[in-house]
Design brief:
Helices cover 36% and strands 19% of the residues. By secondary structure, the protein is an alpha/beta fold. The strands form two sheets. It has a seven-stranded mixed beta sheet, sandwiched between helices. A six-stranded mixed beta sheet has the order 8-7-9-10-11-13, with helices on both faces. The radius of gyration is 20 Å and the shape is globular. It starts with 27 loop residues before the first strand and ends in a 9-residue tail after the last helix.
Amino acid sequence: MSRKTRFSQAAVAVAVVALAASGCGESSTGAKSDGDKQSSGKYSGKGVGLAYDIGGKGDQSFNDAAFAGFQKADKEFGIGGRDVEPQDGESEADKVQRLTQLAKEGYNPVIGVGYIYASAVKEVSAKFPNTTFGIIDDETVQAKNVADLVFHEEQASYLAGVAAAKATKKAHIGFIGGVDIPLIHKFEAGYVQGAKSVNPKIKIESQYLTETPQEGGFSSPDKGKAGASGQIDAGADVIYHAAGLSGQGVISEAAAKKVWAIGVDSDQYNQSSLAAYKDYILGSALKNVGGAVYDLAKSVYEGKPLSGVVRGSLANDGVGFADSNPKYKALTDVVAAVDKAKKDIVDGKVKVDTK
């Protein structure tokens, strides 16, 4: 089983597409394949099959980043594909059925966006050994036809913590996680370590919106707004979220109260639906989900499918910190501290905690 670690460094622009849900809560789009572009003779699939995580397309974060990679692969290779929305309150059987249908229809690779697809990918990949499967944010599925697309989220979060600790005027910052699970603990651990590297005595508010994904921790902007309001009232003037769609509520509340927000996964300063709040988005802890989707699609198209653990880090541009906001760039001491922290991590001088 190969162990590849390099992610595409090409910029992937996130396209925002509003997708109306059908009665069952599931919908899809698909680009048409262009046979003229399929000149390599190696690819015989129907395109990329992309199954979204909770919150679906339009979250301006995790799922939209995956869709950007889907679009980039179609643009470059003309392979088309289909992207499918999750259902509200769906069962494990629903996920299995979704992936099975995509594989049966000939899509290759078939990608589950999020750790919630782990069991489904394990089951369905065994039934379709000639199809390549990808799963984002999980590395428990070990099979020759599965690529585990994972990231050092804690490294990007460390940079977010450094930025927050340098930007705060009160030595008081906050963290809001969508769901209380090990994956989101990595975001918090890196953020706290980064902040304390700047100021060991800094005060950090921490909150998880729900115990389980089914309770809406990743898909409820109102919960994010309420969480941010509480932390701001407590004195925090910089809040970092790792909460998917719920993060839109965090950002809007931060802007309303004129404090800094730090986004996640995508460069949220550049998201159209967050344009009204962008002056208060200090930066975003990036996770190159789009690059991972694109790289897997490219590998299958070229006849050399990735498999095993494919991990994004600061060293290979799989994670990072967005600096799009001119107001962030004007904070030269903050920028310098973040740049130094990145170099120290890449050089191995700093090892970032995951718990």
